[in-house]
Amino acid sequence: MTNVINELHTDLYINGEWVTTQDKKDVINPATGETIAQIAQANEAQVEEAIQTAHEAFSGWKALELKERVTYLHKIADLLEENAGRLAEIMTLEQGKPLKESKLEVLSGAESFRWNAEESRRLYGELIPAPNNHKYEIIYEPIGVVAAITPWNFPSGMITRKIAPALAAGNTIVLKPSGDTPLSALAIFELFEQAELPKGVANIVMGSSKEIGQAFTDSNKVNKITFTGSTPIGKALYEQSGQTLKKMSLELGGHAPFIVHEDADIEAAVKGLIAAKFRNNGQVCIAPNRIFVHSSIKDKFMDKLVPEVEALKVGNGLNEESDIGPLIREDAIDKIKQQIVNATDKGATLVTGGHRLTEGEYSNGFFIQPTILDHVNKTMDIFYEETFGPVIPIITFDTIEEALAMANDTEYGLASYAYASDSSIIQQISRTLEYGMVGINEVAISNPETPFGGVKHSGFGRENSHLGIKEYVTAKFVNTQF
Ligand code: NAP
Q: For this UniProt entry, which segments traverse the membrane (predicted)?
């Protein structure tokens, strides 16, 4: 075990105290297969206690002078920035992504706290025209206790983008991070403690995801669930919440199309594809998963793409020269291999990669080569299934209508991308794509000030931006007669 992990708390954090448990779970480094920590697993009573604590802390946190709440949030942002190096190392050890990506993720979390701190000052109400002796007003108020459930692929970013707006709007929190990557979450909670956040305002529980999810959805003291993760689990939580009628935000799976039109800047398109596809080794809900290339430029596009992919260095994320790290678990490798075999069995060509790396430095980790599949079509699983790994499937098209129809032929609707020059084609693309986000000649689509979220089976609700904080308030109408 390295020092950054030895020094870390591994217990639950409830009502401002670290709470230990009998039951523990191993955390594995996916680059080495080693157990790097054992974390506490909450029982039912401890989960209830965390919810109760957040419920009791709500009235005090809500009533705090806005200036004071804003100061806490800026303090947390300062601490995230000061500790970015340490938090990045913890993240790479438990999740595998290259250190530089981990550091950017921690710093973007600091930005989330700053953005939402300032946005909380602008949660303006509204006055509605009313008869002379009346005042009609809308006041935005915090919801109460927010329960957050987050995935392993962004162990820090998925947490900060929920907790920052929730706290900024005056809510309290109970977080359940992914069991695969709880250490980044614990490191963030240590910073909450250092920031002297009032007791009970932010709590963390780890343990059986099914049981904790059920406790959240069943509790009348939980007023909102914010979930990022797979579509099937999001749907289950939605269904479970029917009896207690929770406000919900669901950030679910994606299967992003990436269209390269005949008039695209091919070099820019290849650069954008490499950046978006191989970030976090393709384990990203907004990663391009189906690459539609116009047949007239296909050869030129491939000539540029293939050497770029072959030059990527796979390795332990702690090594500075690694461009891509391991996948998260053994079963993630199996799933990618199945998709590759299914595609090649049905006629796809393996252009490069496709194999697990098992020798030397790779022997105990979950490493796979970056892969390009050509001649992919709708008969293959990879056309419809979310791909959570470093695989580029190439599909050719002849007309933009054909490309757009294929791009929309999915249950998902999170992110989409296109490279083109003609302004009328760009307009047609951005209007026709059935997605929550569209990147045109650009793959950077996630910023604190811009809305992030999906349609269709990718869920609902928006994170980041001025819309994000609105997910954590309720509109109260007051009609006053004078
Ligand atoms: P997952 O299996 O759905 O898990 C997500 C979270 O839900 C984890 O904390 C998990 O806990 C928990 N969970 C699992 N089963 C549960 C249950 N029955 N009740 C309550 N909670 C439960 O997803 P994942 O594999 O971690 O993440 C990958 C997925 O997330 C992909 O589909 C990806 O597209 C999606 N994602 C979406 C976005 C977005 O913004 N739209 C962003 C990132 C990722 P344990 O890990 O402890 O089991």
A: none
- For 361-404, write each residue's pLDDT tens digit: 999 999 999 999 999 999 999 999 999 999 999 999 999 999 99
**ipTM of the predicted structure?**
0.96
The Cα–Cα gap between 204 and 47 comes to 9
435 Rama sector, left if φ>0, alpha if ψ -120 to 50, beta otherwise:
beta
Question: Distance (Å, rounded) from C-alpha 390 to C-alpha 325?
Answer: 10
Pocket of ligand 1 (CB under 6 A): 149-154, 158, 176, 178-180, 209-210, 213, 228-230, 233, 236-237, 251-254, 285, 386, 414, 454, 458
Q: Angle at Cα 155 formed by Cα 291 and Cα 194, nearest 5°?
A: 150
Q: pLDDT tens digit string along 289-341?
A: 999 999 999 999 999 999 999 999 999 999 999 999 999 999 999 999 999 99
Please indicate whether residue 285 is annotated as part of the active site. Answer: yes
pTM of the complete model: 0.98
* Span from the CA of 95 to the centroid of ligand 1 (angstroms): 14
Tokens describing residue 201:
């305002």
The whole-angstrom separation of Cα 412 and Cα 252 is 9
Gap between the Cα atoms of 269 and 91, Å rounded:
30
To the query of whether residue 401 is one of the catalytic residues in this protein, the response is no
User: Using an 8 Å Cβ cutoff, are 438 and 226 in contact?
Assistant: no
